[in-house]
Amino acid sequence: MKIFTPLYIKVMEWSKHKYAPIYLYFTAFIESVFWPIPVDIMLAPMALAKPKRAWEYALFATLFSVLGGACGYYLGSALYDPVVLPFIEMMGYQDKMLVAQSWFDKWGIMVIFIASFTPIPFKVFTITAGIMGMLFWPFIGIAIVGRSLRFFLVSSLMVLGGVRMEDKLVKYIDILGWLTIAAVVVLYFSLKH
């Protein structure tokens, strides 16, 4: 079933909009707090559409993502009982938070790097870092490194791949979309246990 190809074409149209950078930076901020859609979904087509601005997009996506991470950290450290806990209970995320806490216990600060560079939901770990009282500046430093590596890698791949990359993406977008959904489902069930 081809549902991702029309979506990709629409996102490519949006990526050329004059306000697209504002949408990207806003998405980068809220994705680090509560938004479920990864920044890469906007960043990749924008870097393809305007390769001369790809590094700017990666830089500001990093900055706004880390600012959002700081906001998530604050929610976890200062507003856990009145704001975060009711939301976690309403969404049924108690198990995910316990898993995140166990990962912090096991891997320490490196879990922030892993969460900021990989598709693991960054927001869970920004809030958990605040809940667990992780030192703020090391948290910010690791988040900057992980997020910048991820976003600059995405932009680099788009710039270096250019038109050929876009042709490949259009050709395989549905397969990649379904693989991503499968990966999210597997990740969900692995975090649940």
UniProtKB/TrEMBL annotation:
InterPro entries in UniProt: DedA_domain, VTT_dom
Keywords for this protein: Membrane, Transmembrane, Transmembrane helix
Superkingdom of source: Bacteria
Keyword Transmembrane helix: yes
Alphabetized Pfam families for the sequence: VTT_dom
Domain VTT as annotated: residue spans: 53-158
PANTHER family: ALKALINE PHOSPHATASE LIKE PROTEIN, DEDA FAMILY PROTEIN
Name of the featured protein: YqaA family protein
Organism annotation: Psychromonas aquatilis
Organism classification: Bacteria, Pseudomonadati, Pseudomonadota, Gammaproteobacteria, Alteromonadales
